[in-house]
Prior knowledge:
The protein is of the alpha+beta class and 329 residues long. It has two domains: 13-121 and 276-327, Fructose-1,6-Bisphosphatase, Chain A, domain 1 (2-Layer Sandwich), CATH 3.30.540; 128-271, D-Maltodextrin-Binding Protein, domain 2, CATH 3.40.190.90. The protein has eleven helices and 14 strands. The chain has helices at residues 13-30, 38-53, 99-103, 149-160, 178-186, 198-204, 208-211, 222-235, 248-256, 268-271, 323-327; strands spanning 59-64, 80-81, 88-97, 110-117, 128-134, 168-172, 190-194, 215-221, 238-244, 266-267, 276-282, 293-295, 298-307, 312-320. Strands 1, 2, 3, 4, 11, 12, 13 and 14 form an eight-stranded mixed beta sheet that branches. Strands 7-6-8-5-9-10 form a six-stranded mixed beta sheet, with helices on both faces. Strand 12 and strand 13 (298-307) form a beta hairpin. The chain is globular.
Amino acid sequence: MTDIGGNSGLDRVLVLEVTRVTEAAAIAAARLRGRGAEKAADKAAVDAMRRELAKLAIRGTVVIGEGEMDEAPMLYIGEQVGSGEGPEVDIAVDPLEGTTICAKSMPNALAVLAMSERGGLLHAPDMYMNKIAIGPGYAPGLVDLDAPAGDNIRALAKAKGVPVSDITACILDRPRHAELIAAVRAAGAAVQLIPDGDIAGIIWTTDPDETGIDIYLGAGGAPEGVLAAAALRCIGGQIQGRLMPSNDEERIRAAAMGITDINKKFVLEDMAAGDVIFSAAGVTDGSLLDGVRFHGEFAEVDSVVMRSKTGTVRRIKSKCRDVGGRFGV
């Protein structure tokens, strides 16, 4: 993450404008729910998101995108988006968070975008990142990425004033997490496994009374870690992450993106700083948002948009007309 520009503040109008971007991506992807077409759904979301980004009065640079320039035709890392006028901003996108979820019409697929002042978002390469996250209201450093899972579970339970048996950890359902899952259960806590969608899993920790999730643990995508950090920057909470390169090529890629210490433990302020806007729209029904509902040429979209500067979190229900003409679906 580079120094944040001094005079490139985000216009408050962008808070609602970015919602239109994620709405378009959600509508496009939702047309292909349950069709088993992961790539087609992802492409539809990418195309729709890029079209809407082009209309925004920003000078945007994609820092978290669909891949490197030679890997992705649109929304690649380093791509310039927007009208070319307005503030300079960094943009992180996941046009379809949960491609498999969408293809199988399972819960919690989202269209996600984060925007910051230039230099506000960590330029994270597309590799695994080990993460730990909790919601707001706790002492800084209550949990630690380097501590055993059981210690973190017990510390959180003590801070909440509840027995460990009342704690539920959200973990991606992957073979690599077998030992982690066993450690959490051995400590006496419950585990909620999710097939995909760790951005939503991390956001769930901010409202455990509603979601039942107290802590997020485990390895997922580094780009998703930055997007989740952007949400926590707005709504509150703690997150730590460390990159997990699997080969020299990934280490070289990280260095090229400005990460000089591959073993660095990133905290929230490293991943998302300054004024940040976060927007997500539901593609399929989930614990965070409802999925898109189609009614002829109308579509109803459930979104959440947040801004760190004002501390606002808005839940928006939109009814979009002429979805075929306006959103290209």
